[in-house]
Amino acid sequence: MPTRHSKNATSAAFYSYHERQKIKDVGTQRERLDTNALRRFEACWLCNRTALSPVCTPQGLVYCKQCLFLNFEDQKKKMSRELKEWEAQENAKKEAEAAKKLEEESAEKNKFLEEESKIASYYANQRKPTVAELQAAPKKNQHLLIGAGGKATARAKSFWVVENTPSAPAGEVKPPKRSLECPITRKPLKLKQLVYLKPELLDEKDTEFNRWSCKISKRAITNQKAAAVIPTGDVILMECIEKYVLNKKGGFYGDKIITKQDIIPLVPGGTGYSSHNNVEGIVRRACIQ
C-alpha cells in the first residue's frame, strides 16, 4: 500500500517536483552523444565518405579530389549553358530594338505619305463622282456581322482564343558567372588555391573507413578542432599547433617556418541536431505546468 507522504500527493492543481521527475516524455531532454553519432571528421562534404586524395579549400572544407573536380565539370557545363541562353537573350534584344527602330521609321514615313494624300484628296473631292464610280463603290454594311475590320480583327479581340491567352513573361537571364565556386560556401575558388592533404591514418591498410590521426600526438581526430598545414599538407590538432608549433611570432615545423597564414582551420561537420564541438543532443517537447 502506498505510504502517506507528500511525494505521493497527486490532488494538487499543479505538478510537483517529484511528479515531474517521474514523467520522462515531456519537457526538454538532453543526452550526450558518442563518437558514432557525429559526422566523421574526415568525411568528404560531397559524398559523405572518407575523403580519397583529400583536398582542402581556403575556407577549411575537405573534399575528395575526384568529387570536387566532377563538381567543377558540372559547373562549367552549367556556365556554358547559361552563357548560350544569355547570348540568345541579348541577340533577341538587339533584334527587337532594330525592329522597333524600323517600325518607327516606317510609321513616320506613312504619316508623311498620309499628309500628302490628304492634300491630293482635297482637290480630288471637289468634283462630283460619276454614276460608274458610285456603282463600283463597296456597300457600307458589308462587314457588319463580323465587325468593320473583318475576321482577323474580331479574332484578335477574342481573349478566349489560344494565341490571345495571357501568359507570364519569361524571366530575364542574368549574365553567367565566369569563375568556379566552392560547392558549399559558394565563394570563388581556383585550382591553385587547393591544398592537397596528407593525413596520417590510424591503420595504413584501411584507407576507406579509417580515421585520421594527428601528425604530432597520433590521436584520432573525432570531435576536436584540427587544422591543415599548407606547406606540408599535414593534419594536426589545434591544441598541438598552439602548444608545440606556433607562438606569438610564428614557429618551426620540421625544416619550415610556420606562421598563422600557413594554417587553415578545418571545418568539422555536425549531426542533424547537434553541432560538431557540442556533443550534447537536445530534444524539446511539450512542457507541463
Automatic annotation (TrEMBL):
Chief site of localization: nucleus
Its recorded name reads Nitric oxide synthase-interacting protein
Q: Which intervals hold domain Nitric oxide synthase-interacting protein zinc-finger? A: 5-69
Single annotated GO MF: ubiquitin protein ligase activity
Mind listing the UniProt keywords for this protein, alphabetically?
Answer: Coiled coil, Nucleus
Q: Which residues form a coiled coil?
A: 69-116
The subcellular localization recorded is: Nucleus
GO CC terms, sorted: nucleus
Species lineage, top-down? Eukaryota, Sar, Alveolata, Apicomplexa, Conoidasida
**Would the keyword Coiled coil turn up in this protein's UniProt record?**
yes
